[in-house]
Each structure stands twice: as C-alpha cells, then as structure tokens.
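Hey, resending since the last one bounced:
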Amino acid sequence: MAEGGFDLQKFIDDSKSVLTNPKEYFSSMPKEGGLVEPLIKAIIYGTVAGIFMLIWSLLHLSGASAMFGGSVGIMALVWSIIGAIIGLFIGGVIMLVISAICGGDTSFEANVRVVASIMVLSPINALLAFTGSFSLFLSGLISILISLYGIWMMYNALVSALSAKEGTAKVLSLILAVIPVLMIISTLMCAKVATHTSDTILKQTEQYQKEMEKQSLESMKKLDEFRKKMEEAQKQ
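The structure tokens again:
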C-alpha cells in the first residue's frame, strides 16, 4: 500500500510475481498493513474475472448465455465482484485453519493477505472459461491445472509467509490436491454419461418416429387400396 492510496503499479508487479515465482513473493510479502489493500486486490481480481465472463456471455461462448442471453454475463460480473469480497474473508478463515494445522501463523490479517494474492488465479480461470464451449475435456483439464497451481501457491504461502512446518504443509497440500482433481474428473464422467444417455434417447426417439412414419404410410396405403376396391365393387 502506497502512502496516501492504493499503488496500482505495485499491484501489477505483485500479481506478476506471485504468478511466476510464488516462493519468492511469499517470502517477502508483508503480513501487516490493514485489510484495505487485500480487499482492493480481491475486488480488482473479481472485477476482471467478471468482465471476462461478461465478454464470453455476449459472444455466446458460455452455455448459460445461449439459453438466457447477455443478462447472464451482467449478473456474472456483479456476482463475481460480490463473490470475491465474500470469498476473501471466508478464504481467510479457511487459510487460518490450514495454517494452524500446519503450525503456522494464525493471524487473520496475514491469512487474508495470502488469500488475496492467490485470488490472482480467478481472472485466469475466467479468461480460459470459453474453452468449455468447444471441449468439455479441455475445460476440465485447464481447471485441474489451475487448481493444482493454486495449491502449489498455497503451499509456498504456508511455508514462506506463514512459517508453517514444511513437512505438514506438504502432506496437507497433497491431500488437498486430490480433492479438486477427483471432483473435476467425476464431473466430466457424469457429463459424459449424461451426453451418452441423451444421444441414446435421441436415437431411440428418431427410430421410433421413423417406425411410426413407416406404419402411417403402410396404413395410408392399405386405406387407399381398400378405397379402390370399394370403388371397383360399386362399379360392378
């Protein structure tokens, strides 16, 4: 935080640093200075993420926009900002619990600052969200990679910024890394099953429709033959 206001250039430099070298960034990250700076960071990240979601919605590169239009993107922008603010403080509490388990710093402010820094991944995740319109598998893979990198950042924050025990932090990070992977894989499998089921039902419906059309044509043909026989009988 610059004296007299928020330092935008420092914010940009910090965002680059935490993304490219989280270990070095968290080693020098200030753990005090108030909650205003991390709150502003969270709002900026949430706003940028919301703008990307709005753009994808207007370009119809998200499933929801195809059904409900651009209003979904506008609401996504609003809720992205609100979610970032709420997520910052809830995430701070969760991070504090994790840090406590690992024998690290239990200062709420320090943990909130860590969470605010890790939220830099939010705009990146939103930026790449359009891939779901082209490939569900690719979108899932990207989500897994972003989640794993977020846990890697958390591990560095625990050890370098919150002075947690390295061994405990490593074990806990590995355990936490399994959760998003399993969740995303299970979601992809469910989506695949749902798609397969939908395709099967569609094929069965088409087949049934063809059979009904065939039976209708046969019935019409028989009626026409019966009509001709009746006309011949009347002539005789």
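The CA atoms of residues 74 and 161 lie 36 Å apart.

Sorry for the duplicate.
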